[in-house]
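[step 3/7] inverse_fold.run input=structure_tokens len=692
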């Protein structure tokens, strides 16, 4: 294999280049998958007709905010804009204060009347006062905000959806509002699809720039930096194109792949160019010996990283499973490209790096000081503080999920969602369906609806909302208007699945108390039910990945079970400490961040593997334990510390991402990497001394 790579290295590089060009064209206009029902479809244990819930996808929440109270003239102008979009063929259903009617039951017949009267200033003010008495659905209490519910036609092309949303904004902007808000699943998907492509370019560019800058500072060799950059770009583009080839598009979560491939590629190259005291005049022999000595640990770290991503295959979420598989393939592709690039690097003498002598001296001094802590007080104080933080994290952390978890709090998308969440009853659609027969009393339904109002649900379609005096409706009339079933369409605030679970249990208890056979559904309810379940599945997958890597170490070390603990403690402990640190800022496990810890584990495990592999190699070469440890640290520690610094610098651009999972990847990885390097340099050598 190594002879083949060395002999045909330039031919292989040209082939990689042509594959890169082909891959680049295939992803120039990628399809981004972001479909909520692809997650909700796994709610097979929930008693709800999924087809009904998925109608929520086409809902648009449209809101206007003004600086002053909406006057009669302004309301008339808004109504004119509303009439323009009311008859649009792309709008299937619309509800607003302009078509909202109340029915008055006389005992025999229903008499309907408009809630809002625009015929005169006096009648307008009277209707507003009456609306405020019973909590207006489409108007805020301060009369500065107005709200519309629209439903798009089914199966519209994304370009048509985008044009319609822009048309709505333009149409209502004629009324000079402070801002027009449009929210819903479709606007969220369009927003994210647009920003995914931008971020793939900008964040990759910034990460590449910072990575090249720090590489040049460390190596002082621009040729090596450029070769590394080319190798990384080839790996990223080819890896992403695999998803385009296999699935016809890219999952939203794959936006973090470039940063991962960056870290893997640069880490592998930094270890390969690290001085391992290998002396050969013949370049081919040097290449083969270096790969055998350093390349084996590099391959092992790639394998353990791949295992971390393969853990996602235990998830029932198709996007997460695809992400794990494609990233694993990407790691294998990048390993091959790095091997070819390193052979060229050796042939062109790029590997002979003097480096920045001042920085190398600073790094060596830091490594010596941290690995030779004389004070037992410092030694035990550091580990004691980390244990306390870890225990705090274990006790504090919980699983919770919000619809807005993936959205950056500073983004325009989050502001639009918050407008409806804070002013008009929430953004989570929830339906309550009950059968109606001759035994059903109207008061049962009214009591249930009043209970929903107490729990701060917004009732979009209900008896309380439709009828002014619903208590007078008789059984026969109720049966006639509801037929065999009655469905209440509501919305609730995005207050987290944990709190929502408690509310839904209270609602079920209330329904049982009223003898109402209620079934709960809607996209909001399904999200709460499914998200926590899938979050736990990802965490279980991570645990399986950790155990798998531990077993792998036992096997490659001739079934020495002590390696299981020595290999895992330096990698699991930093993650637990990181969770503890994050819990000081109200951190919780969610569907958008649980998979990040599998990524982090796969990345930070590399450092301890290189130290352990170097130690094992020294023992096989006849060195005594202490000498083997010191030699391993001398050879490996500098590369480990440099790669950690490169990882931190490369991930900094991710902090400005529009997507929370991307920015959290940066934060969690940086914190974990710092803790891991401290543990690897201070405590791992002592674990080796005591247990190996």
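[step 3/7] decode complete -> sequence:
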């Amino acid at each position: 294999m190594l002879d083949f790579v060395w002999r045909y290295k330039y031919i292989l590089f040209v082939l990689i280049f042509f594959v890169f060009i082909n891959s680049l064209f295939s992803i120039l206009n990628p399809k981004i998958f972001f479909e909520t029902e692809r997650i909700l479809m796994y709610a097979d244990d929930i008693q709800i007709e999924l087809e009904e819930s998925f109608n929520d996808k086409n809902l648009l929440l449209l809101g206007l905010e003004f600086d002053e109270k909406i006057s009669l003239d302004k309301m008339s102008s808004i109504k004119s804009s509303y009439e323009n979009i009311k008859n649009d063929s792309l709008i299937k259903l619309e509800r607003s204060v302009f078509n909202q009617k109340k029915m008055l039951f006389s005992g025999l017949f229903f008499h309907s009347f408009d809630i809002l009267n625009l015929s005169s200033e006096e009648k307008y003010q009277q209707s507003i006062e009456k609306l405020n008495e019973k909590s207006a659905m489409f108007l805020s209490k301060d009369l500065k905000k107005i709200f519309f519910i629209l439903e798009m036609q089914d199966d519209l092309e994304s370009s048509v959806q985008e044009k319609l949303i822009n048309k709505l904004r333009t149409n209502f902007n004629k009324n000079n509002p402070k801002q027009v808000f449009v929210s819903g699943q479709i606007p969220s998907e369009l927003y994210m699809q647009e920003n995914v492509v931008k971020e793939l370019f900008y964040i990759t560019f910034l990460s590449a720039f910072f990575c090249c800058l720090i590489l040049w500072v460390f190596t002082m060799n621009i040729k090596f930096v450029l070769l590394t950059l080319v190798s990384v770009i080839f790996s990223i583009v080819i890896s992403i194109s695999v998803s385009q080839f296999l699935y016809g598009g890219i999952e939203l979560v794959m936006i973090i792949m470039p940063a991962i491939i960056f870290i893997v590629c640069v880490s592998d190259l930094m270890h390969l160019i690290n001085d391992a005291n290998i002396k050969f005049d013949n370049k081919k022999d040097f290449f083969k010996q270096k790969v055998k000595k350093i390349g084996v640990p590099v391959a092992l770290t790639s394998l353990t990283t791949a295992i971390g991503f393969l853990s996602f295959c235990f998830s029932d979420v198709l996007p997460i499973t695809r992400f794990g598989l494609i990233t694993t393939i990407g790691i294998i592709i990048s390993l091959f490209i790095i091997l070819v690039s390193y052979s060229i690097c050796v042939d062109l003498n790029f590997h002979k790096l003097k480096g920045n002598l001042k920085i190398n001296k600073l790094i060596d001094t830091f490594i010596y000081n941290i690995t030779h802590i004389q004070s037992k007080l410092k030694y035990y104080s550091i580990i004691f503080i980390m244990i306390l933080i870890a225990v705090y994290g274990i006790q504090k952390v919980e699983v919770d999920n919000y619809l807005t978890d993936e959205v950056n709090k500073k983004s325009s998308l989050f502001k639009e969602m918050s407008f409806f969440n804070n002013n008009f009853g929430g953004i989570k659609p929830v339906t309550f369906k009950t059968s109606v027969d001759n035994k059903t009393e109207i008061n049962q339904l009214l009591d249930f609806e009043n209970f929903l109002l107490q729990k701060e649900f917004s009732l979009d379609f209900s008896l309380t909302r439709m009828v002014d005096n619903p208590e007078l409706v008789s059984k026969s009339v109720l049966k006639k208007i509801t037929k065999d079933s009655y469905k209440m369409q509501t919305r609730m605030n995005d207050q987290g699945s944990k709190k929502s679970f408690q509310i839904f249990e209270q609602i079920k208890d209330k329904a049982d108390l009223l003898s109402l056979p209620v079934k709960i559904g809607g996209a909001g309810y399904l999200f709460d039910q499914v998200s926590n379940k899938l979050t736990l599945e990802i965490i279980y997958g991570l645990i399986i990945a950790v155990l798998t890597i531990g077993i792998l170490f036992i096997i490659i070390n001739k079934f020495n079970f002590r390696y299981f603990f020595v290999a895992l403690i330096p990698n699991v402990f930093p993650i637990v400490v990181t969770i503890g640190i994050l819990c000081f800022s109200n951190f919780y496990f969610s569907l958008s961040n649980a998979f990040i810890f599998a990524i982090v584990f796969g990345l930070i495990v590399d450092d301890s593997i290189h130290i352990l592999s170097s130690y094992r190699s020294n023992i096989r070469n006849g060195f005594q334990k202490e000498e083997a440890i010191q030699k391993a640290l001398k050879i490996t520690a500098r590369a480990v510390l440099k790669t950690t610094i490169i990882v931190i610098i490369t991930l900094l651009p991710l902090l400005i991402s529009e997507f929370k999972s991307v920015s959290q990847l940066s934060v969690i990885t940086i914190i974990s990497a710092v803790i891991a390097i401290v543990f690897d340099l201070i405590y791992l050598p002592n674990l080796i001394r005591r247990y190996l």
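[step 4/7] annotate
The chain has three domains: 2-30+190-396+529-691, 48-183, 412-521.
Residues 412-521 form one domain.
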